[in-house]
What does this fold into?
Amino acid sequence: MIRARRTWAAAAAALTLLGVAPAAAHAAPRPPGTAAAPATPAGTADLPPGWRVTGTGDERALQWRSPRNVPHGDARVEFHADGRLLGVPEPDDDGRTFRLPLHDTEPAALDGLTDLRVLAAGRRLDEEPGAPARERRPSQAPPAKLPPPLPAGSVDPGRPGRFATTTGEYTLDPVRLPGLSAPVEMRGLVVAPKGAAGKRPLALFLHGRHGTCYVPGQGEEAVTIDWPCADGARPIPSHRGYLQDQKLLASQGYVTVSVSANGINGQDGDLDDGGAQARSSLVRSHLARWADWAAHSATAPGPVRRGPKADLSRVLLVGHSRGGEGVDRAAMDSLYPPPPSQDGSPGRSRWNIRGTVLIGPTAFGQNPVPDVPSLTILPGCDGDVADLQGQLYVDGTRGVSRGRALHSAVHITGANHNYFNSEWTPGQAEAPASDDFWDDPEGPDPVCSVGSPTRLTAEQQHRAGATYIAAAARLFVAGDDRVRELIDGTGRRAPSADPARALTHAVGAGRGAGLLPDDGVEVTGGRLCSAVDPDPAAACLGEDARGSSPHFAYWQPEREVGRGAVALDWAAPGTPARIRPEAPVSLKGAESLALRVIVPPGSTGTRLDVSVTDTDGRRATLGGVRADGLPGSDRTASYWAQELRVPLTAATRNGIDLRRIASLELTPRSSSGQAWLMDAHAWQPGTPRVRPAPLARVDVGRTTVKEGDDGERTYRVPVRVSGKGGGTVHTYVTDPATGETEHRLVNVRPGGSGIDVTVKVAGNKRYAWDTSHDLLVKAVRGSVVGSYAGGVTVENDDPMPEITVSPVADEVTEGQPLRWRVSLSEPSDVLLGTMLLPVPDDTRPELSTKDVDPDWLLEHAWEVPDGEVPLSRLDYFSLWAMVPPGETDAEVTVPTIRDEVTEPAEHIGWQPTDDEGEPQGPVLSGTVLDAS
It folds into this structure.
């Protein structure tokens, strides 16, 4: 499980460099044969506000507590340090506290690791919303401006059809899914057309990860993500939140069902893939029932029988957030079956998925299905999946298969994450609900705060979402090519979505050969940049960027290979950027050259001339393109590529050999600016028929082994390759001792994985943490990836040494340190010890804040209060008595200071505690005598 085992090595290094675990600065000289005990308090002034280290032994954890409730959402909460993922913490029931266990791998120092952060899909949780913006804006920013409306398309899929509708709900026996302890409900809300003749296509909706249970009348604080719900709590009916979308499709002749997934939401926190495989199994379990009912209608529930029979050869899947990733996986699993051990939906697929609609989806695996058409809705004010990582369902399909399927992205300015589901919308939901884009009263966001001219109302947003879902159905399922111009970057709008401003781009379909900014491209006059790279000189967006880019969303490796762009930055017009692919590109038969170009949010008037040169050196300028930036702010992912097309008529007129284009030039014509070229493709109209290619499917498993007492054993990460073809993938292997990642490009073929990752395990009889050797896999060509994360987990099988604490100097004169020795019954391979909690004593004078070194006090108690306070009365005061690896004892000290005041002896009591915070052994006592 990569989530919590990700890198204790990295976490330990972060804590060391942030001051949590250095040798105690105030320790007395060490007696021979002992080591200084690192001062690792439960709270320290060197950690950012809200951060602590808690527990000891197996319960040791890095903890962050939010000052406000963190709603249950689809994005994973992650701890980062110095731009590197430390791990995915475990949430507490209070909705505010998150803990990352620090017991899974050996601690090791990583140089330069600093800057602890809490991120969820790129959004900072450990700072006030809008804080960076307030730092940059001397006064309130002016409201953002909407882009002008596009011309209307020739058809409007958002108009209701001719059928009345019928609505009902079915509940079946729950299903057991691998990896989940509790069964998952089988519940579906059916909306179907009345009086529709013949079989009708089926649209299945899957909601995302939201709260599962609520208590009527108790507000948002009583919303939980438990499953099953506790007594007195009710399930949140998230599956009823797409009723408007379902009614629109049903009026147009579609049978629709929206299924409940609370049972997965309440149990997916410990799954490597965030529950994607479980959601796929749930979706396909419902589809299997619908296939049964289509064949034997008498066995169907009443709400199903009241509508026409469903045509399982024409299925559209619609998923929201984690539901989006779930239906993407269901489309993959329907074409390329998953390993039976991972799947909860046995049997062959008796359906044909014609397309998917992904609304603000997560992309934890970044593993799209290249041969199933898709439309991804990107909400411009998404406060949950804020980095708009679902862009990868478009970008990640390029070059993987035949490129015939259309993959469209629809960016909707002013839309948030929740309001596409009415059960997540305040004023419409049965359970408590909220706006996921957190507002900051002190610094309103110019784009997304309520009341901004660019922000949509809930009704406007949901209507726009329903319109584009219907557009996908009409193109992917009904085959009406007139709809394509609304979603493929042509620049036409659906009036039913007004007043929403939706911009689109796409890859695949009528696009032919492409020029991709990969490692084989030579760039002059610009820079080949990396989407994800810790080196600012290599990264596409620098730290000074106002906001982020969906195209450059972080995955898991700190440096990714094969994701990039061509960056242009100019202070004067006229100097071209020339992009030369490794091999000539053919544009023959195309009508235009389609470019996807990013310009900075809020910028206006970026102009570029586009030219091509063939292998004989003939050059032609095709024309100019112009782009204005999207409305954006520090809190939005608005560096988003717009599709810009130039006709190829000038190339033909100038005798260019379009079969052999050797280079592309972009020449700035505006006075100054920036731009990023994502790709360029030969374009022609039309939506070709898609026939899935025989791709290899890769699934990574996890093996758990015991360390053993001696010898060395070698284990392999389990990797399964199935399917009918061969392909290539990227692999990333994480070293648990350093946190660093090794990348390889690997050829795979069914029957022989090609991915050979071995782990050597040396046995011993010393206690240590469990160690995880993790593998990530990502498709490149001719392949798809199901279970993308796995590895080998080495479990410690040695008992923890006994821990004792004894006095060394527990009665001293003021100015001398109190000292205790913490001892282990035998050496350990990891840092071990106990937390000492001060014990109040009202029967005699206590050691106070005026009796100890103030710097030491600040380090251990987070504060030096005004006046004199007994140490036992401080809120966060404690001492960690820790023994370094390989040692058997160390000392912990309390440095006292001498004053000129005559006073009685003062005392402090310490209670050692175990992993659960329970008392461990007798209370230790220390006495400080007056020196005057």
Summary: The longest strand covers residues 165-175. Confidence is low (pLDDT under 50) at residues 1-45, 104-113, 133-140.
